[in-house]
Amino acid sequence: MKANISISPAASLVHEDVEIVVDDLEYSTIHKLELRYLGVRFGGYFNCTPPVDLEYYLMYVKDSISQLEITHFSVTDPRERKVCEKMFRRRLMYPTVQRIEVEESFPPDAGARPKVTGTIFKPPGTGPFPTIIDISGTGGGLNEQKRAALDSRGFVVLCLAFFKYKSLPEDLLTVELQYFEDAINYITSLPYTRDRIVFQGVSFGGTLVMFLTTKFPKIKAVCSINGSFAMDQFAHVRVNGKCPPIGIFKADGAHVKFLNDLMVYTDMSALDDLSTPTIYANSYLSARLRDAGRKFEVNFVPGGHLLDPPCFPHHPMVYSNIAGLFQTYGGDTSLHGRSEFEVWERTVRFFSEHLGAPTPLPDYLRHSAKL
Predict the structure, then answer these.
(1) Which of 2, 44, 285, 308 has its CA 20 to 30 A from that of 317?
(2) For the chain, how long is the longest CA-to-CA vector?
(3) Of these residues, 203, 228, 269, 275, which one is catalytic?
(4) Distance (Å, rounded) from C-alpha 358 to C-alpha 355?
C-alpha cells in the first residue's frame, strides 16, 4: 500500500496550527521527514516584498536498511528515494488585507525632504486600528514579512523604508532624523489609525527605535529585536546634518530625560546571535532604562540574529552590504524555528497590551483558487 500525507488545512496563516498525518508507512523502516522552502537562495534574504506565500514540499524518504542496524542515517538526495510528497502553503498576509504602497511628501509643504516611503498593510474595515511602524537594519530596502503577518492579526502596519529604496538616499549615514518624524506624523494622520504607535525594529533597526523614543512622544512602546546598545560611526542617522553622540544613553542618563512617562520597552534577544552582542546590549539597556524608571521586558530565546515570523526560513549567514562580505548570523535551524513562534506570540501580546487588542479578523475561504 502506498504511503500518503494529509495536511489540514492545506493553506493557513503562518501563526496557525497545521495537522500533518502520514499513513501506511512500512513497518521497521527508518523514515526521515524533509521540509523544503521553495525560492530560497544561499546568502540572500527570502523574497518577501511584496509578501509571497511560503510554499513547501513535505516528503517522507526511506533507507532500505533495517532500523536496528543503523547507527548513522543520512539522505543526500531524498527526492530520488521519496515515498510520498505533498505541497502546502503558509500565508504571511491575510487574503483581504490591503497592501498600499506609499511615497508621500509629508507635510505637503516639506519641500525637498525625502518622501515617506514604504508600504501600509490595512485590515478590512474602517478602524481606527492599533498602529505599528516597523523598520529593518543596515541592509536597507524594504522587507515586508513582519508587517504582513502583524496585519493578519488585526494591526495597521507601516513598513517603513529609510534608505536604498526608490528615491530615498543610498547611504545610511545621510539619513536624517526628521524623516522618521515625518513618517510618524503621516501614519497617525490617516483616518483608520490611532495617534499612539509602537515602533518595532530588527538588528540596527532595533538600535534605531530606541534612539527614536528619546525624541518623539507619539511612540508609546518599543520592540527591539536583536538591536545593539548604541549607534556607532559605521551605522547611525544624522540629526540636523550632524552625527549624534555615539551611544544612545550616557552614563548620567542625559538622553533618557526626553522619554515620555508612558514608554514601555520589550527586547527580544537571541542567545546564539553571532552578529550583535545582544546579551550585553540587553543587560546594559535594561539597567539604564530601569534607572530612569521605565518598564523594560527581557526575552532571551535560542536562535540567530534574524528572528522573523513563524515558518520563515532561517538565515545562518547573509551578505552584508555595509561590511561588503558574508556575515554569520548564528542559530541552530531547529531551535531558531521554534523561537520564531515564541517571539511572535510574545510580540503580539506586547502590542495588544500597550496599543489595545485588535479585533480578530474573520476566517477566509482557504481553498478558493482566487486566494
Answers:
(1) 285
(2) 76
(3) 203
(4) 8
179: left (phi over 0), alpha (psi -120 to 50) or beta: alpha
> Could you give the CA distance from residue 289 to residue 221 in angstroms, rounded to a whole number?
13
This prediction's pTM? 0.80
Transcribe 223-251 into DSSP letters.
Answer: EEES--SS-BTTB--BBTTBPPPSSSS-T
The reply to whether 305 belongs to the active site is: yes
Catalytic residue among 136, 152, 275, 305: 305
- Give the Cα separation of 169 and 192 in Å (integer): 29
- Based on the residue annotation, tell me whether 273 is a catalytic residue of this protein: yes
Write the DSSP string, 334-357: HHHHHHHHHHHHHHHHHHHHHH-P
pLDDT digits (tens, 9 = 90+) for 30-75: 666 666 655 544 434 444 555 555 554 444 344 332 222 222 222 2
Closest CA to 133 of 181, 79, 174, 203: 181
Q: 309 forms bridges with which residues in the sheet?
A: none
Structural domain boundaries of the chain?
Answer: 4-91, 98-355
Q: Which three cell numbers stand for residue 337?
A: 524555528
pLDDT recorded at residue 256? 40
Question: What is the CATH T-level fold of the domain 98-355, as seen in this structure?
Answer: Rossmann fold (3.40.50)
pLDDT tens digits, one per residue of 153-170:
889 999 999 999 999 999
How far CA 25 is from CA of 29, 31, 73, in Å, comes to: 8, 8, 18
Task: Tell me the mean pLDDT in the region 289-309.
Answer: 82
Distance CA 18, CA 12 (A): 8
DSSP code per residue over 307-331: --STTPPP-SEEEETTTTEEEE---
CA distances from 142 to 12, 120, 179, 255, 350 (A): 24, 12, 16, 29, 24
Is there a catalytic annotation at residue 354?
A: no
C-alpha cell at 322: 555595509
Q: Which helix (H) or strand (E) holds 193?
A: strand 193-202
Residue spans of alpha helices (H) in the chain: 145-151, 177-189, 204-212, 278-291, 333-355
CA distance 149 to 147: 5
Please, which pLDDT band fits residue 296 given cuts at 50, 70 and 90? confident
